[in-house]
Amino acid sequence: MTNEELTLYIANQIKKMREFRNMNQQDLAERLNITKQAVSRYENGQRKANQDVLFELSHIFGCSINDFFPKNEANTKQIETIAAHIDDDVTEEEMQEILDFIEFKKRNRK
Questions:
Q1: Please, what sign has the CA dihedral across residues 18, 21, 24, 27?
Q2: How many structural domains compose the chain?
């Protein structure tokens, strides 16, 4: 994966996590103490989120900083296993959202 691809992947993860929590860009900007435009730049890959920003986002979203990065090969096997139990019309993106939700639920167990 190139640096540009990684930047875009992280940007997409930030947007997905924000939307999953029903936040708009202004809400997130206020939590980060930055402008809405800066959030937009993070989400479209025009601005790289450094480790401090990702650390703060992990606190805001209640996730691991690792959730912003691509999964490893072990997760590919997990996707294939889950996919075997779901209809054929689920896209790869939808499958990743399902996996993200499962991880979110696991992290928030009491």
A1: negative
A2: 2
